[in-house]
Amino acid sequence: MSDTPTAEVWIVVGLGNPGPRYAGNRHNIGYLVVDELASRQRAAFRAHKTGRADVVEGRVGLPGAAGPRIVLAKPRSYMNEVGGPVKALATFYKVPPARIVAIHDELDIAFGTLRVKLGGGDNGHNGLKSMRSSLGTGDFHRLRAGIGRPPGRQDVADFVLSDYSRAEAKELPFQVGDAADAVESLVSDGLERTQQRFNS
Is the pTM higher than 0.85? Predict the structure, then answer.
């Protein structure tokens, strides 16, 4: 893919922490969504040449479809250091920040809901903070997957690094599927139409 004109390439980054210890955490919703997108491509993640992320290269839509080119990425670094790997991929594929989508957990949105936006602050999210620092701008797309606020007095850090409740786990596949649909819509149909469909 990197040898062809890259004007229409999008990089879709699932934010999370690598390794089995974190796999089911609320903080790892980004990984779950890019896994779903990869499964729709019937493709497996492979180490990228930069050595800093695992990627799937393909197109949006059914396998063999001629939809927009897309690079799904799972950085190999922890959440607070994802900016470096994202910057390396953006440089490799010659993709501007406006064609990068970060999928991340969002405390200020109820579980099961989504918001798609372009630009903004990091709202205390270490992954977004790292990306803004490395890219030199916050003007990338975000798909914010709601996880809600912790119950009672539970510490926020403990909450995001804990697994979904049993009830949430039953609903999680629907949220992940909707988020994957939203990414495909964003890349194919643009921000405004995607916001109308998915910003519940």
Answer: yes
